[in-house]
UniProtKB/TrEMBL annotation:
Name of protein: LysR family transcriptional regulator
Keywords associated with the record: DNA-binding, Transcription, Transcription regulation
Similarity comment: family membership: Belongs to the LysR transcriptional regulatory family.
Gene Ontology terms for molecular function: DNA-binding transcription factor activity; transcription cis-regulatory region binding
Database matches in PANTHER family: HTH-TYPE TRANSCRIPTIONAL REGULATOR (PTHR30126), HTH-TYPE TRANSCRIPTIONAL REGULATOR CYSL (PTHR30126:SF39)
HTH lysR-type domain mapped to chain residues: 6-63
Gene3D superfamilies reported in the protein's UniProt record: Periplasmic binding protein-like II (3.40.190.10), Winged helix-like DNA-binding domain superfamily/Winged helix DNA-binding domain (1.10.10.10)
Length: 299
């Protein structure tokens, strides 16, 4: 991490100043003295090399640079909160009252936000989280080791009930230097099927959707690489190892920065439902029901 990035406490202070319009009120909210808050702001300004806050008898106002830095800081603090919520769940405290199993893409990109919302609604709820592909999630539910699961496959596994909580699109991507990135015409599905790709493992929701979509085009070629997480597959694609098919949820930053390029494919639908699932006849109750409600309301 860069040595020119302020710590989280300093960023939280800047957000409080922006919200409250007063360094003193921000200090009180965070439980520190006003001189300590002033010192923290000055240290942050020295670190970043720009003035962030203008102080006057009427209060404190962000400079133009301070407004920009605050917007960036908000994203960092929200990401840290998501990391904390996910890590707390992974620790699996013994008094956990909600056991969640989630497939990898949902666990990486959606679940932390849902857990933050649940902590706001029910701060006393302890959550444990286990991750794996969609098949592994189903196995945990069948074994009574999870109260609620989240999967990305084509349908609800036999023996489970479920509800759609979102939609996702799979995208064919390559590094910018790959020949496909210079194509003018969309890729033919048969060419995609015949090309060794960087793929998720069998049993993953991503692989299920791709297998089904290409079944009538000759089926998938032997994978170039077969990896157990979206993050690993994405890193391999960014490195230039080969083309991959990844969740749109996972690649927004890479596409924006052109570390990856989307490759259009003609006449091929690569969409999937994201589902909450539970054992048939055991509809979620208590915290599991609360979490399910948050996912479906966009919480």
């Amino acid at each position: 991490m860069s040595h020119r990035v302020p710590d989280l406490g300093a960023l939280e202070l800047l957000l409080a100043v922006a919200r409250l319009g007063s360094l003193g009120r921000a200090a009180r909210e965070l439980g520190i003295t006003q001189p300590a808050a002033s010192g923290r702001v000055r240290a942050m300004e020295r670190l970043l090399g720009v003035a962030l806050v203008e102080r006057s008898p009427r209060g404190s106002r962000l400079t133009d640079a301070g407004v920009l830095v605050t917007d960036w800081a908000r994203k960092v603090v929200e990401a840290a909160e998501a990391l904390d919520a996910g890590a707390q769940a992974l620790r699996g405290r013994r008094d956990s009252r909600l056991r969640v199993a989630a497939s990898m893409t949902i666990a990486e990109y959606l679940l932390p936000g849902w857990l933050i919302a649940l902590r706001t609604e029910r701060p006393g709820t302890a959550v444990s989280l286990s991750t794996g592909n969609s098949a592994a999630v189903a196995e945990r539910l069948f074994a009574g080791e999870a109260d609620l699961g989240f999967v990305e496959g084509l349908d609800v596994p036999a023996g489970l009930d479920g509800a759609v909580v979102g939609r996702d699109r799979l995208v064919v991507v390559t590094a910018p230097g790959h020949p496909w990135a210079r194509r003018r015409a969309p890729l033919d599905p048969a060419e995609l099927a015949a090309t060794p790709l960087i793929l998720r493992e069998r049993g993953s929701g991503t692989r299920q959707v791709l297998d089904a979509a290409l079944a009538t085009h000759g089926g998938l070629a032997e994978p170039l690489l077969e990896l157990a997480s979206t993050t690993a597959a994405k890193a391999a694609a960014v490195s230039g190892a080969g083309p991959s098919v990844l969740s749109e949820l996972a690649i927004g930053e890479e596409l924006a920065a052109r570390r990856l390029v989307e490759i259009p494919v003609r006449d091929l639908t690569l969409t999937r439902a994201l589902r909450a699932v539970w054992s048939t006849g055991h509809r979620p109750t208590g915290p599991a029901r609360e979490l399910l409600g948050l996912t479906r309301s966009g919480g």
